[in-house]
């Protein structure tokens, strides 16, 4: 055993001298063994009354604490289920082995322990070691056991250290996983089929965003990383699967801020024979049930404010909200020039040249004046028809869409609408998008001839919905930024040692108005 603990040259961190074993079978994770030791409840004096007990448990984990106290040694192991105390008694093992373990094991090492369960005098469930195997050595120091990892840049670049040192960070990612699992079960129970659609697409469509582009060498063809799976999911519905969903990554080549990442996770679903009102009821049920099941409450704290998802969600008309906030009536102001003049006259924004179309201006106006004031969950409905070329116009007022967004704490977490399934109107509206792109609006959608052809073969009435997983998780866990709920967010290249760039500079923060 001594050779397993300290190499002959006396350096327990020497990678040349240590060859880790390939496996270490256990009798359960640390939480399971802890439960058995607790249930047994016998003190060490009783367990060891007739001499060193036989090993009945085998546990493994990372060493988080290692305290040598003369003839005794106590350590704390951690695995994915939690933590467990282990102990070594000099009288219960070879003295040389005991000394090697006391001096040779470092914080961060992985060890396996064969031993027996008991309760210490202070009531701590513990595994007393009869044999210890070093499974792998840590050659770099662990985070501070009290402070954890406090440097934000380090937390994002070296998430493994963040997870080891910050229990709150671990909890967020556990909640994320469980929320996604709950969402899948909720959809499966309602007859939705999970499908997968291409991430490399010939045309960027389904959302207003700038895409990333790449080249496929084998096909000698340029493609875009998808900004949305929408048009492909609609093709699947046209093929006869009435309810489908996909949880996957989207990519948008835009700015980064606390609520925007260029690579992010979305849930999209489509249900034949539904309209947007069906989705309003469905998504509220999904969100409330997800929070109740996973978080245990529908009330969460966001920037010090209690946000209650369990209360009624008011329905707010988009144009009325803009008119109340700005005095601008979008029902009357219908062209780019008039809207620019109205915005400039009121001093709402001075970067109007960044919005080259009427739709972009309307979006800028709403985001500067209305969205920040929407704190409690609400449905924002009936957006101007120019905003989404894939959405169905309202029968009573064709200037607006059968559409809604769920807005919480100034974040849009859901967008949904009754889908446009008329191929003639859809082609006209996409051609208008092409003309806007040619005029300089690089966030418009591209023409997809195959999508139009699929619609010409017949597409049932349907409603689709998109839920931002990252934003939902951030709200559910009280995270101030999406980077806190994405394991490995994209960042700027790390500054060289000695460079004057600050951690905030290297994180890659810039404004996103989307």
Could you please describe the fold and organization of this structure?
With 514 residues, this protein is α+β, with helices and mostly antiparallel strands. Among the domains are: 2-136, Nucleic acid-binding proteins (OB fold (Dihydrolipoamide Acetyltransferase, E2P)), CATH 2.40.50; 163-309 and 460-507, Bira Bifunctional Protein, Domain 2 (BirA Bifunctional Protein, domain 2, 2-Layer Sandwich). It is built from 16 helices and 18 strands. It has helices at 2-5, 30-40, 44-47, 95-104, 152-157, 159-165, 167-189, 230-238, 276-295, 318-326, 336-345, 358-369, 423-438, 449-456, 469-477, 503-507; strands at residues 57-69, 72-79, 82-89, 110-119, 125-136, 193-194, 200-201, 213-216, 221-225, 243-251, 263-272, 299-302, 305-308, 315-317, 378-381, 403-408, 411-418, 462-468. The strands form four sheets. The chain has an eight-stranded mixed β-sheet with strand order 6-10-11-18-17-16-15-14, sandwiched between helices. The protein has a five-stranded mixed beta barrel with strand order 1-2-3-5-4. A hairpin with a 2-residue loop joins strand 12 and strand 13 (305-308). It starts with a helix and ends in a 7-residue tail after the last helix.
């Amino acid at each position: 055993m001594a050779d397993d603990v300290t190499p002959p040259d006396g350096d327990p961190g020497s990678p040349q001298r240590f060859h880790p074993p390939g496996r270490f079978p256990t009798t359960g994770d640390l939480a399971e063994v802890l439960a058995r030791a607790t249930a047994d409840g016998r003190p060490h004096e009783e367990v060891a009354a007739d001499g060193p007990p036989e090993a009945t448990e085998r546990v493994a984990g990372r060493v988080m604490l290692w305290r040598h106290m003369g003839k005794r040694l106590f350590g704390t192991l951690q695995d994915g289920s939690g933590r467990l105390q282990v102990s070594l008694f000099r009288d219960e093992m070879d003295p040389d082995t005991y000394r090697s373990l006391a001096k040779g094991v470092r914080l961060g090492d992985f060890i396996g322990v064969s031993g027996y369960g008991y309760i210490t005098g202070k009531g701590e469930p513990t595994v007393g070691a009869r044999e210890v195997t070093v499974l792998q050595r840590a050659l770099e120091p662990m985070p501070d056991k009290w402070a954890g990892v406090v440097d934000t840049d380090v937390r994002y670049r070296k998430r493994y250290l963040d997870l080891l040192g910050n229990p709150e960070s671990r909890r967020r990612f556990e909640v994320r996983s469980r929320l996604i699992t709950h969402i899948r079960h909720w959809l499966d129970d309602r007859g939705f089929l999970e499908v997968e659609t291409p991430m490399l697409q010939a045309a960027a469509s389904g959302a207003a965003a700038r895409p990333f582009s790449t080249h496929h060498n084998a096909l000698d063809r340029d493609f875009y990383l998808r900004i949305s799976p929408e048009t492909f999911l609609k093709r699947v519905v046209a093929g006869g699967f009435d309810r489908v969903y996909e949880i996957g990554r989207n990519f948008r080549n835009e700015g980064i801020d606390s609520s925007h990442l260029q690579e992010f996770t979305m849930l999209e679903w489509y249900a034949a024979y539904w309209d947007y009102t069906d989705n309003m009821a469905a998504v509220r049920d999904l969100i409330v049930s997800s929070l109740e099941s996973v978080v245990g409450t529908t009330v969460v704290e966001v920037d010090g404010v209690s946000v209650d998802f369990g209360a009624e969600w008011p329905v707010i008309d988009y144009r009325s909200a803009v008119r109340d906030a700005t005095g601008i009536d979008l029902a009357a102001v219908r062209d780019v020039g008039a809207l620019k003049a109205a915005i400039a006259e009121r001093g709402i924004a001075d970067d109007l040249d960044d919005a080259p179309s009427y739709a972009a201006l309307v979006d800028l106006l709403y985001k500067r004046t209305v969205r920040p004031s929407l704190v409690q969950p609400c449905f924002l409905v009936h957006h101007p028809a120019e905003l989404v070329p894939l959405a169905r116009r309202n029968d009573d007022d064709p200037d607006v869409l059968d559409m809604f967004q769920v807005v919480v704490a100034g974040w849009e977490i859901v967008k949904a609408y009754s889908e446009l399934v008329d191929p003639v109107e859809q082609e006209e509206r996409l051609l208008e998008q092409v003309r806007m792109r040619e005029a300089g609006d690089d966030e418009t959608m591209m023409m997809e001839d195959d999508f139009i052809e699929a619609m010409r073969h017949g597409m049932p009435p349907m409603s689709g919905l998109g839920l931002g997983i990252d934003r939902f998780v951030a709200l559910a866990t009280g995270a101030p930024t999406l980077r806190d709920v994405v394991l490995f967010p994209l960042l700027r290249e790390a500054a060289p040692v000695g460079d004057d760039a600050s951690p905030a500079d290297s994180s890659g923060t810039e404004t996103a108005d989307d």
